[in-house]
Amino acid sequence: MPDIHQQKILILDFGSQYTQLIARRVREQKVYCEIHPFNIGLDRIEGFNAKGIILSGGPSSVYDKDAPLISKEVFNLDIPILGICYGMQLTAHLLGGEVEKSAHREYGSAELIIDDDSDLFKGIVSRLRTLNSELRTVVWMSHGDRIRKMPKGFISIAHSQNSPLCAMSDIKRKIFGVQFHPEVVHTPKGAQIIKNFLFKICKCKPTWTMESFIDTAVAEIRARVGEKAVVCGISGGVDSAVAAVLMHRAIGKQLTCIFVDNGVLRQDEAMKVEQTLKKHFHMNLKCVDASQRFLKKLKGVEDPEKKRKIIGNEFVRVFEDEAMKLKNAAFLGQGTLYPDVIESVSFKGPSATIKSHHNVGGLLKKMKLKLVEPLRELFKDEVRVLGKALGMSDEIVNRHPFPGPGLAIRVLGDVTKARCDILRKADSIVLEEIKGAGLYTKIWQAFAVLLPIKTVGVMGDERTYENVIAVRAVNSVDGMTADWVRLPYDLMARISTRIINEVRGVNRVVYDISSKPPSTIEWE
Ligand code: XMP
């Protein structure tokens, strides 16, 4: 079995907003990597056994009073190093070069002129296509400081019109620095630069494939769990479903999944989960219909944060009741992802490993359960690839994100079964039409919202006074910022006509044209 962790890259984080992107770019080349805070100490850096180290960018200046620094000894470990932006300035600073404030902060696209295309920049620009035999490529700059004097042993390997020094290398020690950001899409050849670092300089092998991940993860789960039983909560989202299928591949019937119907799920959701996990994968799955219990608690509650708390607390209670019934459960399976566990300077310490919606910390203590988190090393899009590799359908793995509190925060105001039913129907039409137009996988999230107002309409010859549905479709990379999708008018027309004709109690449909910020994706 290939050990996917033998060929790994260590990314030291100095607080750049792009650090996770560096990791994405490395993994796209099928090389495993981990992000750690800059201050993990020389011993851990050495003990990590990396094939290469990447120093991220960051907002600091090396001369700041509390500038993030590392031991100079990192450069003597005989491990190739690539410093990006702040990482390059730090390299220069620690090895005896000089860094200074640029006259102007450089931000945005710049044209890079490559002076040495032997290692890092190999194959970036074809010599045949160049004018005046200059090798030019576009890069993304974002820095305030620059290097005035390189350390001993370094040569300049690229410049731009504004900066005489945009990249430097010490070939002998395999230490490189780039002033620009190869990890962002605005540097079109950035992926090739990272690829060169990984394969030409660090001599990595591309062993990080989903197939090899599955082999390793299955062996690890088996070793950790032994003969014991595992209980796992299923939310209807992608992560918990993929985690469950992976654990099932490893330990089969030792795994029991619990799916709680909280009464605020999308149309046919419970049925789809059952079909996939029980019928297709033959899993031990317990579906608990707790919808009455949840709706009773939600009755009359209008405040969105109160709704969230009620649903979170109630979920834990139902889940605990069910888990307690299981004999000899010793582990709790969770679909925790890598972004949740990265302990990086930009994210201010270790983030909670248990999402608040699934806050089953009490259960861990009460039943003395230990956690199994087989997706801890993966990014969201890797989870999707993993799901496919495990034989899950596109429909499950490509699902849009769905909030834990479900339709309760999309039925604005009072949440009742009747209002949830109206929303479920309208929402399923929105999704059906968007899928029919081939746009579902191109959109981050699309859904319907039921507004807490009624408006006047006319149907046939009769005046109506009915509900309003708002349609929301947004594009986003991570849910932190979002823009509304310019859906084709004829698609919007079909959605509107179908909702008004097919969903009783709705006589008006509006489209949400707000971006985030200043709005949010959900209405509550
Ligand atoms: P907002 O509305 O904050 O949403 O722009 C950003 C992303 O998070 C989802 N969301 C939630 N997910 N529990 C969740 O599990 C919540 O309470 C919650 N609120 C919002 C939202 O669907 C979007 O993907």
Quick structural overview:
The chain has helices spanning 19-28, 42-47, 86-94, 190-201, 210-225, 238-251, 269-280, 291-298, 304-325, 338-341, 361-366, 380-389, 394-397, 417-436, 489-502; strands at residues 8-13, 32-37, 52-55, 81-84, 98-114, 135-149, 155-159, 167-170, 175-178, 229-234, 255-261, 284-289, 329-333, 370-372, 445-459, 462-475, 483-484, 506-511. It has 524 residues and is of the alpha/beta class.
Overall description:
This protein is α/β, with parallel strands linked by helices and 524 residues long. It has three domains: 8-201, Class I glutamine amidotransferase (GATase) domain (Rossmann fold, 3-Layer(aba) Sandwich); 229-397, 3-Layer(aba) Sandwich (Rossmann fold); 410-511, GMP Synthetase, Chain A, domain 3. Helix content is 32%, strand content 25%. It contains 15 helices and 18 strands. The protein has helices at residues 19-28, 42-47, 86-94, 190-201, 210-225, 238-251, 269-280, 291-298, 304-325, 338-341, 361-366, 380-389, 394-397, 417-436, 489-502, and strands at residues 8-13, 32-37, 52-55, 81-84, 98-114, 135-149, 155-159, 167-170, 175-178, 229-234, 255-261, 284-289, 329-333, 370-372, 445-459, 462-475, 483-484, 506-511. The strands form three sheets. Strands 2-1-3-4-9-8-7-5-6 form a nine-stranded mixed beta sheet, with helices on both faces. Strands 12-11-10-13-14 form a five-stranded parallel beta sheet, sandwiched between helices. Strands 15, 16, 17 and 18 form a four-stranded mixed beta sheet that branches. The longest helix is centred in the middle third of the chain and has 22 residues, at 304-325. 41% of the residues are buried.
